[in-house]
Structure formats: structure tokens, C-alpha cells
From TrEMBL:
It comes from Dreissena polymorpha. Residues 538-897 form the Transcription initiation factor TFIID subunit 2 TPR repeats domain. Residues 1101-1120 have a biased composition (Basic residues). Keywords: Nucleus, Transcription, Transcription regulation. Residues 923-963, 975-1170 are annotated as: Disordered. GO terms for cellular component: transcription factor TFIID complex. The lineage of its organism: Eukaryota, Metazoa, Spiralia, Lophotrochozoa, Mollusca. GO terms for biological process: transcription initiation at RNA polymerase II promoter. This is Transcription initiation factor TFIID subunit 2. Residues 1121-1134 have a biased composition (Basic and acidic residues). Residues 995-1006, 1028-1041, 1061-1070 have a biased composition (Low complexity). It is found in: Nucleus. It comes from the Eukaryota. InterPro entries: Aminopeptidase_N-like_N_sf, ARM-type_fold, Ig-like_TAF2, Peptidase_M1_dom, Peptidase_M4/M1_CTD_sf, TAF2, TPR_TAF2_C.
Amino acid sequence: KSLDHFEKAYESAVSSVNPDFGNGEVFVKLPAESMSTIADMQPIRINIEFSLEQPDAGLHFVVPAVDGSLAETGAHMFSYRHENSSRLWFPCIDTYAEPCTWKLEFTCEVAMTAVSCGDLLEVVYTSDRRHKTYHYYMSTPTSAPNIAVAIGPFETLVDPNMHEVTHFCLPHLKSILKHTTSYLHESFEFYEELMSSRYPYSCYKQVFIDESYEEAQSFATMTIFSTSLLHSSRIIDQTIITRKYMAAGIAQQFFGCFIVMQTWCDAWLPKGIAAYLTQLFVKKTFGNNEYRHDIAQYLKEVEQYEAVAGGIVLDPSFNSKGMYFSCMQPQTMSPTYLEMYHKKALLIIRMLEARIGATLLLQVFNKLQALAFAASQQKFMATAWNNMLLSTNSFLKIISTVTGKDVQPFIDQWVCQGGFARFIGNFVFNRKRNVVELEIRQDNTAKGSLKYVGPLEVTIQELDGSFNHIFNIEENKTKFEITCHSKSRRNKKKKIPLLTGEEVDMDLSAMDADSPVLWLRMDKDMHLLRSVTWEQPDYMWQYQLRYERDVVAQIEAIHALRQFASPATRRALTDVLECEQAYYKVRIEAGMCLAKIANTMVASWAGPPAMLMIFRKMFGSHSCPSIVRQNNFSNFQHYFLIKAIPLAMSQLRNMHNICPPEVVRFLLDLFKYNDNSKNKYSDNYYRAALIDALAATVTPAVTTVTITGQSINADLSSDTKSILEELTRCLNLEKLLPCYRHSVTVSCLRAIRVLQKFGHLPSDPSIFRSYAQHGTFRDVRLVAIEALVDFIKTDVNMSELYWLLGVVERDQDRYVSYETIQMLSQKPPFHRGEESLLNTEELVERLWKLINSTLSSDSRIRCGVADFYFAMFGRYRPACLHAPDSFTVYSNVKEKKPYNPAIVSETLTDMFEDEDDDIMGFTSSMPLPSTPMKSEPSLGVAGPSGSGVKRKAESPPRGQPIKYPLFLKQESGFSLGGESSNPVKKLKITGSEDSQGGSSRPGGRSEAPVLPYQGVARGDSQSRLSEDSNSSPTPSDSSQSRPLTASGTVSGPTSFQGLFSSTTSNSSASYLPGPDTPLFTSAHAPSADLTTEVTGDPSGHRVKKKKKKNKHKHKHKHKHERSEKDRLKERVGGEKMFASSPMVPSVQSVTSMSSNTRDSAPSSPDFEVI
């Protein structure tokens, strides 16, 4: 049960049905009579009749459990996909590389509306007028993954600005649909004008549905959105988010639906180009500040992920190793990796823009669109449609044709390999030579780092202006000199020209009198995938924060100033917070930083709490500043600030590490005097932010411990009582008057969990479980599940963990299931190597069942469970599992000294102590081995220990070994038939005839079972082999195992079961009953052996040194030792003959491991398996 073994079997299974490799799940044999038709290039029609009943994936039905007809209750259905997975709901060639035209017919009830891809030709009613059939025709060649359908009682809205665009929503939502989509025509106009190319299709449809698989999914001529994206004119926060999603949906019509990837190795191109176009629309609509802030945020997230998990390879055709999952296909990739993959693709396209120029890049896009459109008009030759497929090679050719530039080195450096450049820089001003001595270093030792060779831009701001310098980076450590254009300052105040051309007055009294340098920046335009650690004095960061006009530079200065707590830093942050010309996100960051500075300077802080006077000055009443004015959110910058400043103030702490009482009273007064009666915008997000601020003021409760050890919680403080009363009032009011997206309820639940965690309320998960039930609004469910995840980690509660795994496995809303497993992955109950009551074999069995068979139809959630498994157990076999049923370990072939394999030696422990098993995620830590370990992966067998104990054998040592598992035989740690001068160790594994065999795997080979221990014995201070260990394991009841059958005729892309053999654990049913589907397929067959010679470093087991330290000397010998040697010599006859010994049926077991033994380490490569 190791992820390495699962990954190999999983990738093999997915590849076996991958259409890009010429494989599939349904094979049609053409008759001989059709050969002449094929030779004449005539079309052949193949009819496939199929029935799809109760599908597990591909189609989702939303049927509210209320009285009324389907139309009255708003019941509807829609299709969804995870990359190429259309085969889940109709038979097709499920690849992007096979476009074709489509004729689609959908029959539904008369009250329903069917929306699908292409043009609607007609609607035909039945004679009884109870049903109708929609006829759609997709004339533009389209790939099967880009076909979709949605059926429901939709309300229809034709866009008043573009009659080719139609919007659909569920009943009673048409009013907010009209407002939400009122701007959509601007997106079409922007993209068409930007690329000088028309929209490639004749129509476009937007469908808003409930329980969506993702917030937005684009298909040919249509996009399916979540209903949660709809909003009225009173909502501010959602507007920006929704417009970005809609703009992305239209951009993906150009690249992603019309022009598609040729193979998955080329997926970075359409995904990156569509995201690049979306960001250009964001830049035009929301401004350059929003655009640059988003790019900087994406860059930071990708860097953080790669620093923890390893490099993201956009084109894995030549470099796909290093992860515990395969990067060659989307169905095998971690969901978090896939999310970062999309963001990195955007950054790479943007870097390409810097290489060839924005204008030339847009000309390349225009050329691609023109060639694809011309190809789509050819209806006779399918080969002409190849121009609608985008590959890395064709993209390079188009760039070379349009621009005459060769970007192959760029592709090799940033696309064909993963990682990012790490720059560490500092400088010193040389007054005598009037030069800046610059030193730039690269850190290539950390995970995810990439050695960069090429140009690097450094910008220096001097008294006489800003100047850019380009340096060529060739070594890891390089020194440069920059000749300054300015002399040292003469006056304290002077107009300084900035990079934008603006001249500003600066107070130069804080700077060095001998230096004309104000600040330096590296790669200011983010044209590299890099992280920069820049060292300069605090006054330079303060100047950069005050006077630099780039929002990215200002935020960098704010983050750097957290390390410089001083009155000058306090004044700089205050100035920016009060500056009306500053970008609102920069002002918010300044407020958060000011709270940290105030906490650091709490001993010397004078005056009222930080930001209190600023807030009253900006938002207080003119007659009484302590009372907030009536809400007026017409100024959006002030709206975001009035939400952020209270949250920043809640981070303040006094000398006792407690939030000052005046801050708590200030926040409670904001609730008291909140008046939204004359405001044309909703205040729901403002009230939710105030609740979040109240929760942030809570600190751990004071607990008294008696002499007997019992804890006595003191009564709630007055401030905590006031907070709890306000939360109760808001939560009850929300029941009567729910706000948009229940944002107040979300914040209240989050605050209640904070009170529980800090000891002010009893830690009770029942309230969160009630809110997490299906039928509650999605946002409320997710925050309740988030609280349960935190509860599981802090309280070590197995029942709640199993309940959440039930949500992952069976919840109707698959988006909630996905988010649940993502939360568990980012915040697992324990990490590998940690002692936890939750680290049980039962948990391993349940997770293994989920990733092995139960979630075979949903690869996104399946890979999410694999992430969760990795976070807790790592890549190799979990230590909590018992070793294989029966085996004996010998330290040396000649001496035949047996050792207890349940005891892990220090040498073996050192072999794996470097593995870090944190789960991947940009908000969490999950280092992954960048290269495969040279030692053999775990066989579920503990290595020999110097403290092992000899025992008297009760059975002949020469048992008949079981057949060696295929996935273990293929491990790189084995050397079949090789010779080595190192001493050869042996590992004898035997099994009984009745052992349960594994189900068949790709390649037609079966696997050996891994069964729990049958014998139990433990010594005083160490595990010992039981002397009564010759009992055979009890075979599993074959009636409890049956193959998992698919619901429909066409199975999913990863719908295979029984990757590995296992025993079925029933103890989990006491927490949450699972479905009747068994974990594995039962198979009974006599075992056979496969002998393999393994050589390795003898230093892996220092047996002699260990035996010197043993207090007990075991001087007895096995009576059958001499005969055992003779038998082995007769059987083996030399190492080479031994490596090719035939397989014989298993007769009996030799030994049986103790079931109480919990420590199981991966076996050493210094063994010979017989």
C-alpha cells in the first residue's frame, strides 16, 4: 500500500485506455467489405446503441427534495468533465486531437429547456405535447471533451447588445441574471479587437446551474457557471470575481475550445494563452494595478508550491519524474499541482511576451486563429483540421514565421523543465568611485530551484532619476558595478524624477548623506519566474513604499518593513494608509503591517491603539468621531478599507498578549452604530468582516489546574461574553433575514470555532456537522467542514474524520467532496512519523479503498485522496501496517542468522529519515523527493536489527515461497541475476494456498496478498517472533468480495478496480457505513515463487556492532542449521542459478509476525528474496 506502487499501476491503467496512445475501452472491428470504402476515402457510419442509467460521473442531476413537479422545484441536470472525460456519459473518441462535426438531439419534458453546443436547428414536439426534442448542429469541428448539455426549467435572456449571445438561469433569478451579464458584450469586443480576429463560432450561451462541478467550465459555444456567481447591483465584492470568470469563459472559446491541445504535453499553450488574454481584459477593465497585483500573486503562489513540492514541468514529455504521481496525464495529477500548472502556464506566456514583444505575440495569436478558421471550413479532408490543434512544435514554427525569432532555448529552459530562479542580492555604494557594487547570488540547493543563465534587469532609483541596467547572469555568484548618474545630495529637499516621469518632492534627511541611491529593484516587470531576496537599509524600503508608483514594489517594501520596527517605519506605513492616491490593496497591506509593528513596539508605543484615530478620521461622524457615520459605499476604495482596518486592528496585542479592551469596545460599537438604511449597496460583507475581526481578538482562555490535575475553566470575561452575545444575535438574525451567499453565517461559524479552540466554549462538533449537511448553501457547508477538519486535528477525533471521508465518498455535490479532501490534505490530522491515535490500519484500508476502486469514476477527487494519503503516510508503505503474513529474515546467506524483522535498526531508519511527507499546497508544506530513492521501496517488511533474537524453528526453514508481486519485481532497487562482491542477504517469504490473491492488473499478472499478522507475541523491551508462528492465515470470505460493476455501458477513463490485494477492514463501519461495493476482487489460486537476487551495500546492516551492545547472549544454535545450508546449496546451486529458479506451489508458512508489532520500515536493498 505505497503510493509509488499505486502510481505505476494507476498510470498503466489510464494509459491503457488513452486515445492519444491509440487505446480505448471499446474496440470496433471493421469488416473486410469496408476496406474498399476506406480506400475510396468514403465515410463509414458506425452506430453504437447504449443506455446510461444512474451514472456515477459525467452527468449530474439536481433534484430538490421538495413537493411539486420537476419544473416547479427547479430540478435540472448538466454534464461536466475533468479534462477529457466525456466517455463517462457517451461513447466517443475521448481526446482533443480528434475534432469532428456533431448533430445532437435531446428529448425532455415540455417544461424543460435543453441547451447544448452548436446552433439550435429546431424544436419538435411529440403528438401528445408532453415532450419535445431539441436538434443542435455543431458545424465547426469540435473535440468530444468540448461537448456538453444542460437541461432544466431555465429562464432565457437574449443579450440586448449581442443577439448571438443567450443567457440561461434557474427560475426566479432572471433579474440578477440581467445585471450580472449586462457588461458581457465588452469582453467580446475587447478580444476581437485585441487579436484582430472574429469570435470563431456563430453563437454563445451561458448557463447558470446549481451544484456545479467547478465555478465555471467552458465548452464549445457555451459555458456552464455556478449560480453563486450571480449577483444584484447591491453587491460589490462578487462583481470583480464574476466578471473575471465570464471573461475567462469567452477567452477559452478562442483557445481551449476552438483551438485545442494536440496532446496533454501541449496543454500549457491553450490554457496559458486563454489565461493571458483574460488578464489583459482584467488590465483594461480593472486597471493596471489590479493586473500587476494578480500577476505578482500568481508568481508567489507558484514559487511557494515549487519550493515545497518540486518543479512544475509544463511539457512532461522529456522530464516527468520526481513526483509521487504521474505528470503525463491529467487523470493522474494532483489537483493542487494542476491548479499551479495553469497559473505557471500564464506566467510563461507572459514571459514569452517579454521575449518577442506584445505586438508580435498578438500577431502570432491572430495567425493561429486565421489558420484554424480556414481549416474549420474544410469539410472533406479531416487532415486539414490539424491546424485546429496546437502543439509546442507548431507554436514554435508560427513564432518563427511571424517574428523570425527562435525561442527554442526559452522553451527548453522554462517549459521542458520545472523550477524557478532564486536570487539573493545586496549592494554597497563606493563613494570614491561613485559606483554601486552589486552582488547577485543564486541558491540552487533548495527544492524547486532552477539555475538561471541569461539577462537580468536591475533598476536603480537615484536622485537624478530612475535607470535600468541589464546584466548577464552566468554563475551562481556574480558581482557587477553600476556607475551612478547622480552625486550625493546637497539639499534636504529636492524634486526627484521617478520611473513614470513624474517628479515628486522628497524629504532626503533620512538617507545616507554620501550616497545618491534611493532604492534598487530586481526584475521589476516580473519577466522571470523567480524569487528575490533583496537586502537594503530600512530607509530605502521606506522611500520605496512612499514614492514608488508600482504596487508590486510597494507591497514588497511593506513585507520587508516587517523586520524594521521603528518610529520611521510606523510613520511610513501610516502615510500610505492615509494616502488617497495609493491603491487600496496596498493600503490594506500597510494596515496589516502596521499592526505587526505596533505589537513589536508595544513597550514604547505611545497614544491610542494603532489605526484607531485613522479610522475615526476617515469614517467617524463629524460631530462625534467615536460614532461611525452612516454607511455610504459609493467610494469603493473606502468600502474595502472600512472592512480591512477593523480586521487589522483586531491583530493588536498589549504587553500581556491580549487584545486591548478599547479595541474590542471599538469593534462592538461598530456593530451598535451600523446603519445601512440610506446605502444603495449591501453591507453583508462589511458585517461579516466585523465578525471576523471580533474572532481575531480572541486569545486563549486562562485555565486553572488543581492539585489532582483537573482543569477548571474560569468564567467568560466580559469582553468574551460580549463577543459571544454579538455572534448569537447575528446568527439568529441571519436565520430570519439571510444575506447574500450567507456571508454572515460563514463568519459566525468561523468565529465559534475560534472560541472553541481557545477554550471559551466546549469543543463540540455537532453544530458544524449540522451545518455541513447536504441541502445547506455551499459556502456554509464548506466553512462548517473547515471547522471539522480543524476539530479533527486538535481533538484527534476518529468519528468526525470518518464522517468527512463519507462526504468525500458519497456527497451529492462533488465540488463539496473535492473541497473537503483538499482541506484534509492541506491540514492533515497527522504527518508521517508522528504518533497519533488516528494512525491506524483501519484508516489506511479505508483510504486505500477510496483511491483503488471507490472513486474510480472521479479522477479529481481520487487524486485528492492520494494527496491526503501522502500527507499522512508518505510515498512508501505506512508504518502502522503489519508486515506480510509470514517471512524470515537472514542477515547472511552463509551464517543464516535470523533476526526479528519487526524491530527497525537505526541504520534502516537513517535511510529514510530525510523524507519529508508534508502534503503539497501553496498554503502548506509538502516536500517531495526530487529524485527516486536509491534504496528499495517498502515491501512491507522491516529490516534486520542488531537486537534481534534467535529462536528455535518449529517448521522446516525451506518453505515454498509465494509468487513475487509484479510491482515489487519492477522496482529499481532490484538487480535480477546481477553479481556483486557485497555479502548477499536473503529474505524468505512464504504463503499459504488459501491466501487471497489480488485482482488482475494491467499486463495480466496477479499479485501476492498482504495479510495481517496472525500470531501475537512481544518481549520485555522488543518485539519477538512467536514460537508458534507456523499457523496459516485465514483466507478472506470470498462471498464478501465481488467485482465493482460500472453503472453504464461506457466506463470512465480510470475505471479499473483492484489495483492491489488487501484485506477488507470492517471496523470502520462502526463510524460511518460505507457502500456495499467491496474494496478488492477475490481470487484463490495456489501461490508460486519468483526468486530474485538482490545485492547492496553491506554497511546497511551493522550486525556485529549491534550484537556487542546486547545484554543477553544467545548461545544456542538451531539444530537444523547444517541441514538447512545443505538444502539451500542443493536448491540454489550458485547465485546465477538461484536468480532463475522455477516457480513452485506454496506448501506451508514458515513464520507468522506479531500482530501487535506497529513499527514496519522499508526493507533494505541488501536482501535476496527467495
